Structure prediction request, 259 residues.
Amino acid sequence: MERKNTLFFTPTRIAVIALFAALAGVLYAFGFPINVAFPFWLELNFSDIPALIGTFVLGPLSGGIIVFVKILVKLIIKGTSTVFVGELADLIIGLAFIVPAGLIYKKHRTFKGALDGMGVGTFFSVALSVLANWLVLVPFYLHLFFQDDWNNLVAPMQALFGDGVTKETFYNFYLWISVLPFNVMRCLIAVLVTLPIYKRISMLINRMNERFMPRSCRTEGGDAECGAAVKKRIIITVAICSGVVLLLVGGVLLRYFLG
Prediction:
């Protein structure tokens, strides 16, 4: 008779978190602008997809780890052009999307629960993206990079929306015609990709977990051997992943201070 593994951070879970985080980080680093509809500094990327799938499959805590590590991976690949302010905003906006979705789905593991979670996550993520741009990002860029010269922000918006965009009307156009629909689209893409596949991926990971579980844990009896074997695997896996995260952090710091 098979035994249910009740440990949270199993070796399989840690490995899957690392896989999703690496994929999300690469997708995050290779974002691209949609110049025909949005100003060039709003870059679309698909990193929310592996983060959301990982959240539904592994839970909101695992999803939060994926979002955090993807930021480190992006910083290693591409660096920062915002003194980490943009990445911090993306971290908060990403967590606002996947954590509420994961918490709701954890309590209601149905298709409706998934839809409700995604809807709530989208609301919080879009709302925070508007607030972050209004209160933090635009003032930061304007002061640090453009020496409070509004023309650097107004001109690209005028190219899209006409001469009605001025210093006085900038936020009306930028927040409600650019930031809001852009982030709704970002979340909607993640939702449409995640819904059809997250169940299949969850089943695949469960099979992987059973397959790679120590032999003494697959049948009744041998509790001591099972516990010792699982603990050993967890220690090794955590040590390796912690080393990788430390290397990522070290690489980010070296890139920033020496680049």
The two ends are 57 Å apart (CA to CA).
